[in-house]
Amino acid sequence: MAWLSEQEAKAKRQTDVGPPHYEQFLPPVIKKNYGQWKYHEVLEPGVMVHVANSGDKVYTVRAASPRLLATESIRAMLDIADKYCDGYIRFTTRNNVEFMTPDEGKVKDIKKASADAGYPVGGIGPRISNMIHTQGWIHCHGAATDASGIVKAVMDDVFPYFVEKELPNKVRLALACCVNMCGAVHCSDIAVVAIHRKVPTIDHDLVKNMCEIPTTIGSCPTRAISPDVAKKSVKINDEKCMYCGNCFTVCPPIDIHNPEQDGVAIVVGGKIGSLRTGPKFSKLAIPYIKNNPPRWPEVVSALRNILDTYAADARKHERVGEWIERIGWESFFKKTGIEFTYQHIDDFTFARETFRTSAAFKW
Amino acid sequence: MKKYDTPLLDELEKGPWPSFVKEIKKAAKTSEMANDELGQLEKSYRDKRGYWKHGGIVGVLGYGGGVIGRYSRLPQEFPGVAHFHTFRINQPSGFFYSTKALREICDLWDEYGSGLTNIHGSTGDLVMLGMRTEALEPLFAETSSRGWDLGGSGSAMRTPSCCVGQARCEWANIDTMDICNVMTQEFQDELHRPAFPYKFKIKVAGCATDCVAAIARSDCSIIGTWKGKIAVDQDAVKDYAKKGMDINAEIVGMCPTGCMSYDGKTLTIDDANCNRCMHCIAKMTKALTPTGEKGASILIGSKAPIVVGSLLSWVVVPFIKMEPPYTEFKDLIRKIIDWWDENAKPRERIGEVIELKGMRSFLEAIGVPPQPQQVFEPRKDPFFFWKDEDLNGK
Q1: For an interface test with A, which of B140, B168, B203 has the most A Cβ atoms less than 10 Å from its Cβ?
Q2: Using CA atoms, how far apart are residues A281 and B286, in angstroms rounded to an integer?
Q3: How far is CA A267 from the centre of its chain?
Q4: Is the pLDDT reported for residue B394 higher than 70?
Q5: pLDDT tens digits for A87-115?
Q6: What's the gap in Å between the CA of A96 and the closest CA on chain B?
Q7: Residue A350 pLDDT more than 90?
Q8: What is the DSSP letter of B18?
Q9: To 10 degrees, the CA torsion angle through B389, B391, B393, B394?
Q10: What are the chain B neighbours of A87 within 8 Å (beta carbons)?
Q11: How far apart, in Å, do the first and last CA atoms of chain B sit?
């Protein structure tokens, strides 16, 4: 393939066409029964069947994906889809791959082909499906940790809960490499969010050439930034700064990266759906674990401790957040053995709502 | 091509979960870009920090977004990632593809980029990870001429996304895939040419299970719902009981409004007292089916922590019909966006603006009346405003 020349590109390009219409990508059995599905059943940890009003069935085989995929891997998945799924494939909202077929007989072939290609089958039902994450050190300027590395280490550790073992309900895991949280980390059952712990350093010469001062000042959630007129730059009130790094996001010469002090926090109890109880935010469980590449063993074992405690103690259908609310946060810290510190008590915008205005609590 | 020693990254090839390191190495066999990504990433693992410069405006002619500029801080050491921009391709609704279409994209990407992708990015786009500036125009010509446009980035309408909806899910009350596609087409100009105060995200979920996390991460969360009764197939209920479900403990006892009862023979739902949380339907999908008028609840405001803290979307319109061509919804959302555009400071999300200006200002601007469904509880404080029209009794 040769690159298009400038003129060829100019002639060929189209704008504002939008995405291709999904209809052309629907497997025939799905197209035929669109809007006419009656029920579904989870047959195995990685296999479910949807049954239509017409009686037609579609079997879905879900397989693990690391989200970051080389074209070679995509082609391997497409080969499976060509062989067994009439040339159709889809991906899930949590980055796994799904192979669909109306033919039950093909399910075991798909499972084997996918596993052989390196994409194990699982993740449906009351278990772990995948760990949402973003770019980390692979691509992001703001990352305080690597995303893919921690995700790989965690998913290796909780793998039995992907392929087989059941949990009281699904457990949504996620990771954000900074507090911008590009993915629903703030509402996950158990999530990792990378944080900084030191006030950033300012390169004043670069600030005056690169940064819009009012935007920089306005970017600070705690109003820690004010003008430094003499330097034609800004200054930071150390006591107000809580190292969120938003100033860096709008003004790169404010450098917040600190390899020795940066690390990750673990948050728990978030929920998206409205089933039984409403959506909830994740709350702080562990304020800091150091970055320890390549496999972050301390993060993995801390997360696993929370998961195991939940699995052993929660009632059927309880999500992590519901389990914690039923037993009380004081019990959560006791059962998991996690230390409760000053960092756990809120002092930001919604702090007052979190203080316990009741004399009823467990010891 | 330089051969990098990657002892730290090699550790992440071990273990049962598919390895991203294996993926980068696959692409690195033929791509200098992927190879240098590997080298730089190993250095990041040694030094415990990233080596990417902040931003950099690149794009294609006529668009202000869809391409995320990325430059390495170490271009001499890792020339392959001197430029490593992201090319966001707007995905088809529901992430369905034909193998033919994806193969075409793979072939183009191998030619013009690193061979590395994210399927998918967090917002939903198909992410082509790593290309040089000079490849942008030819690749865009190749993809757009084949019907693949760029997604949104920056202070623009971002790429809408949706759950699998009526394509496969029996719980979808609205055609999420169609709504997502129609809205993406409706807002092409706003998507490609950033003119908003900040980002605006739309996500479409078929029901309150919200498998696309709309309520947590979209400014405008469209959540499918219904107004009628839940139809009960009593034989199917008995079937679940026979298979071991403890209906009283797991279903009746977990109903948040206590509107259900089960005497071992008949499951009864007091529909007037059902708040449509989806728990019973999710656990007994063969037995329970929503009936009656279908539509959507529109919730507004969710966002990630920066700046005021995380917000979940809250109910603004409890019920709106969502039937093609979605004229009523399109009118509503344009009013919503216009009000936000007029009232927001730079980088202010609509949730933050509503908190600042108050729900009344927002509701009056978009023509939606106050309703108890919009709040969990009324205000606690006595500090409420009166307008002349309130005093004079409208």
Answers
A1: B168
A2: 31
A3: 12
A4: no
A5: 999 999 999 999 999 999 999 999 999 99
A6: 9
A7: no
A8: P
A9: 10
A10: 98-100
A11: 77
Report the predicted TM-score, pTM, of the whole model to 2 decimal places.
Answer: 0.97
Inter-chain residue contact B170 with A37, CB threshold 8 Å: yes
β pairing state of B288-290 and B230-232? antiparallel
Q: How far apart are CA A301 and CA B67, in angstroms?
A: 38
The answer to whether the peptide bond before residue B325 is cis (omega within 30 degrees of 0) is yes
| Residue found under tokens 């609509």 | B350
Q: CA–CA separation, A176 vs A132, rounded Å?
A: 8
**Confidence band (pLDDT; 50, 70, 90) for A182?**
confident
- Region for A91 from its dihedrals, namely left if φ exceeds 0, alpha if ψ lies in -120 to 50, beta otherwise: beta
- Return d(Cα B201, Cα B217) in angstroms, integer: 8
Q: How far is A246 from chain B (nearest CA, A)?
A: 7
The confidence band for B365, taking pLDDT boundaries of 50, 70 and 90, is very high
Half-sphere exposure (CA, 13 Å, Cβ side) for B29? 9
Which residue has tokens 């200054």?
A: A235
Among the residues of chain A, which ranges form H helices? 6-12, 28-32, 71-84, 107-117, 147-157, 160-163, 204-210, 213-218, 246-250, 297-313, 320-327, 329-336
- Closest C-alpha among A214, A210, A220 to residue A251: A210
* Subunit contact A274:B277, Cβ cutoff 8 A: yes
Of all helices (H) and strands (E), which one includes residue A62?
strand A57-63
How many C-beta atoms lie closer than 10 Å to residue A23's C-beta?
Answer: 15
Structure tokens at B381: 């404080």
Here the tokens at position A137 are: 């050190």
Retrieve residue A34's tokens. 């669109």
Inter-chain touch A156–B16, beta carbons under 8 Å: yes
Q: What is the ipTM metric for this complex?
A: 0.97
Is it the case that residue B384 has pLDDT exceeding 80? yes
Q: What is the pLDDT of residue A344?
A: 98
| Interchain pair A71, B63: CB under 8 A | no
Per-residue 3-state assignment (H helix, E strand, C coil) for A34-47:
CCCEEEEEEEECCE
Burial B255-278 (b: 16+ CB within 10 A, else e): beeebbebeeeebebebeebebbb
Distance, CA of B207 to CA of A144 (rounded, Å):
35
Burial class (CB in 10 A: 0-12, 13-18, 19+), A204: middle
- Model confidence at B271: pLDDT above 90: yes
Pairing of β B230-232 and β B161-162: unpaired
Task: Name the token pair of A219.
Answer: 């970017």
Q: Looking at the complex, report in whole angstroms how far the Cα of residue B386 sits from the nearest Cα belonging to chain A.
A: 27
Place of tokens 């100019």: A10
Cα–Cα distance for residue pair B213/B354, rounded to 1 Å: 21
* pLDDT at residue A1 tops 90: no
Mean pLDDT value across residues B215-242: 98
Side-chain-facing half-sphere of A276: CA atoms under 13 Å: 20
Distances (CA, A) of B228 to B9, B231, B269, B279: 55, 9, 12, 17
Question: What are the φ and ψ backbone dihedral angles of B360, each rounded to 5 degrees?
Answer: -60, -50
CB of A35 closer than 8 Å to CB of B175: yes
CB A121, CB A42: distance < 8 Å: no
Q: Residue A98 gets which letter from DSSP?
A: E
Residue A257 pLDDT greater than 70, yes or no: yes
- Report the distance separating Cα B302 and Cα B328, nearest Å: 22
Q: HEC states along A253-303?
A: CEECCCCCCCEEEEEECCECCCCCCCCECCEEEEEEEECCCCCCHHHHHHH
- Of the candidates A73, A184, A276, which has its C-beta nearest B216's C-beta? A184
